């Protein structure tokens, strides 16, 4: 059977996902190709695969809808055109994702992984030499980064929190390392899933460069950032510190929020100097700044001189707040890597490793750029002379305040509750209280029902 790589897979992503999960797809693939199909024969062809930004940078809005940082009135819930986000909002056990959609979250992640695998397979048929080494290594590094990043973010949606003591017996994600549709998928352990993520990202570090780039094209700093974030989630603080430190050694630039224009509807500039890698999620109806009312305790946590209060939020006519501080310059949700998060990763890892001097310096370096200035002087009061427990609590609070609507709160809730934080989420819909307890099995969202029906992979328990 002759296989064809499709330059625009968006229309066929569900077919690809079906083929990943079924024992044979020859009858679907042995079709006459049309002009949109091409066999990759050169590095430029493979470059086109990894440069398909519509596939590579798209993430799921589930990481934000589920995270509990906003509430929606009954009237606004009733006005939604789709019921899936309502069910996701109230943490229903099943049916949170549309079925049969080529744009479903599951299909998006595994289509990007398919692209990466296609590029990696194509490279094995091309000799690397002195003339093509730079492009060859870039394509390989970028494909490995994509496979690692997509598998990691998918695990945040469909797997429970990574617990080093239980990971070998915990359900992970299907690991796809080639484009062979005839291979049946199965869920690897969470431990093996993360071994693969780390292996791919670590190899990407050796292949990518530090050269300037636009944030939709990963470089070595992005691979370092991915590893730092993965290791923090795994509670491996030594390696989280190591890779955050490596990333910041190459790029430590922070925006001065005092020069941003609060009159701008979206005050954070697109492709600003803090961006390391830009992943985007859509802006579903439930998250628009009128419907999604930011929880009051988060708003109350900002100092009056804290510029994030004005730049991140917009006050609605009813006195509630909506979010507008996207690191995209638009209303697209930023789910990528940025310098401010790296400072907070290194600070948290440092305080957990008893390196409080580093943690204090990182926290103050970040926050001084977030406060108003009067007569040329900052109004920020430097944090100093506090114990390690208090410092850790402050760093975790600043993570929540700095990284709003980036898909990170869900990540933090899972890992912090694993470690005993006991954070309980509550929402009220039509007079009924919905509660998500710490470490609830619903922290692993249900795999779409059609994927389960088409395959032998195991659904998340409830």
UniProtKB/TrEMBL annotation:
- Domain RagB/SusD, which positions? 341-460
A Pfam family matched in the record: SusD_RagB
Q: Which domain of life is it from?
A: Bacteria
Which coarse location class describes where this protein primarily resides?
Answer: membrane
Domain SusD-like N-terminal stretches: 27-232
Compartment(s) where it occurs, according to its Swiss-Prot or TrEMBL record: Cell outer membrane
What are the protein's UniProt keywords?
Cell outer membrane, Membrane, Signal
Q: Which InterPro entries match?
A: SusD-like_N, SusD_RagB_dom, TPR-like_helical_dom_sf
Q: What's one GO-annotated cellular component?
A: cell outer membrane
Q: Which SUPFAM superfamilies match?
A: TPR-like (SSF48452)
Q: Where are the transmembrane segments?
A: none
Family, per the entry? Belongs to the SusD family.
What name goes with this protein?
A: RagB/SusD domain-containing protein
- Give the source lineage, highest ranks first: Bacteria, Pseudomonadati, Bacteroidota, Sphingobacteriia, Sphingobacteriales
């Amino acid at each position: 059977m002759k296989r064809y790589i499709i330059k625009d897979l968006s229309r066929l992503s569900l077919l690809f996902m079906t083929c990943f999960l079924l024992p044979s797809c020859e009858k679907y693939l042995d079709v006459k190709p049309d002009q949109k199909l091409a066999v990759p024969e050169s590095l430029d062809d493979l470059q086109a695969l990894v440069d398909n930004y519509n596939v590579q940078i798209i993430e799921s809005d589930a990481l934000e809808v589920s995270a509990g940082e906003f509430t929606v009135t009954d009237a606004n819930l009733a006005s939604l055109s789709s019921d899936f986000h309502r069910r996701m909002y109230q943490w229903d056990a099943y049916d949170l994702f549309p079925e049969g959609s080529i744009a479903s979250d599951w299909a998006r992640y595994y289509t990007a992984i398919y692209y990466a695998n296609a590029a990696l397979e194509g490279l094995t048929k091309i000799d690397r030499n002195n003339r093509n080494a730079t492009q060859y290594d870039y394509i390989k590094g970028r494909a490995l980064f994509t496979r690692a990043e997509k598998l990691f973010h998918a695990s945040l949606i469909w797997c429970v929190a990574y617990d080093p003591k239980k990971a070998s017996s915990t359900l992970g994600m299907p690991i796809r390392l080639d484009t062979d549709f005839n291979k049946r998928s199965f869920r690897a352990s969470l431990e093996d899933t993360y071994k693969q993520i780390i292996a791919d990202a670590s190899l990407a570090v050796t292949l990518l460069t530090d050269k300037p780039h636009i944030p939709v094209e990963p470089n070595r700093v992005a691979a370092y950032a991915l590893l730092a974030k993965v290791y923090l989630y795994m509670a491996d603080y030594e390696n989280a510190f190591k890779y955050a430190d490596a990333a910041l050694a190459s790029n430590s630039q922070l925006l001065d929020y005092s020069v941003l224009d609060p009159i701008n509807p979206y005050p954070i500039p697109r492709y600003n100097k803090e961006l390391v890698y830009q992943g985007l999620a859509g802006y579903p109806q439930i998250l628009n700044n009128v419907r999604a009312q930011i929880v009051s305790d988060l708003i109350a946590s900002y100092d009056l001189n804290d510029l994030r209060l004005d730049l991140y939020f917009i006050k609605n006519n009813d006195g509630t707040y909506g979010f507008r501080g996207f690191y995209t310059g638009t209303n697209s949700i930023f789910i990528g890597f940025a310098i401010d998060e790296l400072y907070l990763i290194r600070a948290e890892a440092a305080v957990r490793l008893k390196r409080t001097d580093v943690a204090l310096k990182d926290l103050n370096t970040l926050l001084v750029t977030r406060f108003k200035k009067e007569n040329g002087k900052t109004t920020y009061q430097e944090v100093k002379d506090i114990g390690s427990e208090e410092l850790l609590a402050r760093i975790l609070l600043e993570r929540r305040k700095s990284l709003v609507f980036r898909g990170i709160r869900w990540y933090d809730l899972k890992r912090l509750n694993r470690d005993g934080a006991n954070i309980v989420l509550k929402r009220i819909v039509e007079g009924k209280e919905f509660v998500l307890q710490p470490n609830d099995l619903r922290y692993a969202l249900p795999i779409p029902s059609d994927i389960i029906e088409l395959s032998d992979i195991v659904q998340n328990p409830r």
